[in-house]
Predict the structure.
Amino acid sequence: QVQLVESGGGLVQAGGSLRLSCAASGRTISTYRMGWFRQAPGKEREFVAATPWSSASVNKYYADSVKDRFTISRDNAKNAVYLQMNSLKPEDAAVYYCAASGRFGTSGVRAVGWYDYWGQGTQVSVSS
């Protein structure tokens, strides 16, 4: 079992930045594929970013809507995953969730159903 706890959400003006953190416990995340998702009111949960590998420098995956603005990273020593969000837009407002998958490969990194463990979420609000 992996327990995930997100933090770092809040209210920010458009164009501003936030850094979300996801602290994991129970098991080391070094063998898990880690992702960030978000869900706005009335919308389905959607993929934001993923870091499938234990090495922070290897391939990462991003939704087109956040590419070049958001950066996902992981620190296996701290058993944590981060999401640096820059140039925030009002449409980025949502509850952001951290997720972990014990599945092999990367075919499903963008799919909600591919992940086994979820955090409780942290609210991000962006004022225009």
Notes: The CA atoms of residues 15 and 105 lie 35 Å apart. The chain has a mean pLDDT of 94. The two ends are 40 Å apart (CA to CA). The chain is about 0% helix and 45% strand.
